[in-house]
Specification:
The protein contains seven helices and nine strands; from the N terminus they run αααβαβαββαβββαββ. By secondary structure, it is α/β, with parallel strands linked by helices. The protein has one domain (about 5-195): 3-Layer(aba) Sandwich (Rossmann fold). It is globular, with a radius of gyration of 15 Å.
């Protein structure tokens, strides 16, 4: 099961507060990733949250298709975006050769470690040849839960690289270790991944 029911319940229950908390701005990695894409690229966003990143993509002229696994979060994002937000868990991704990019900022970090390769296989299949995937994960190397009860896979550099390599024959995978924070206000290790489909 590539999702954690308790984590989904948290986002359902906390949707108004969680989406309002993101008013600080877009992901710090978004602009750099968009600069790698052709103008007007078709982008699927996995786990769009309150929709701030999707709004920025649309403003820059990209064809963005936001999704979120929680109906209550998706509804809040629709209010902000004025466009449909598909309610879709990661295991429900079935697109094939359909997107120039699949963007997943701080969302795949909730996928149980053993299930991550299957989700990444689906992301690879959804990309057109040469398409790009971005994801960010909390680091650490030992799966667990935060003070809100949310599950995190807390990947190490090696775990992330191995998950991507096991999932699909990517042309290249770049993993970077950084420091960052999140909704819980805790600063700690993070990973960013950019992978290109052959």
């Amino acid at each position: 099961m590539p999702y954690d029911p308790a984590t989904l319940r948290f986002y359902s229950d906390e949707a108004p507060v969680y989406t309002a908390s993101a008013m600080g701005g877009i992901s710090r990695h978004l602009e750099g990733f968009l600069d790698l894409l052709p103008p007007g690229a078709r982008i699927m966003e996995l786990g769009c949250g309150g929709g701030l990143d999707a709004a920025f993509m649309a403003k820059r002229g990209f064809d963005v298709h936001p999704t979120d696994g929680t109906p209550e979060i998706a509804a809040k994002a629709e209010e902000r975006l004025g466009m449909p937000v598909r309610v879709m868990r990661f295991d429900e991704l079935e697109a094939r050769d359909a997107y120039d990019a699949v963007y997943a900022s701080a969302s795949l970090l909730h996928v149980p470690v053993d299930d991550l390769p299957s989700v990444l296989t689906a992301i690879h299949a959804a990309l057109i040849p040469g398409g790009l995937h971005f994801a960010s994960y909390k680091g650490g190397g030992q799966a667990g839960r935060d003070r809100f009860g949310r599950y995190f896979n807390y990947l190490s550099y090696t775990q992330a690289l191995q998950a991507y390599q096991a999932a699909a024959p990517w042309a290249n995978v770049t993993v970077k270790e950084i420091t960052g924070g999140g909704y819980d206000g805790v600063q700690g290790p993070w990973l960013t991944v950019v992978a290109r489909k052959a």
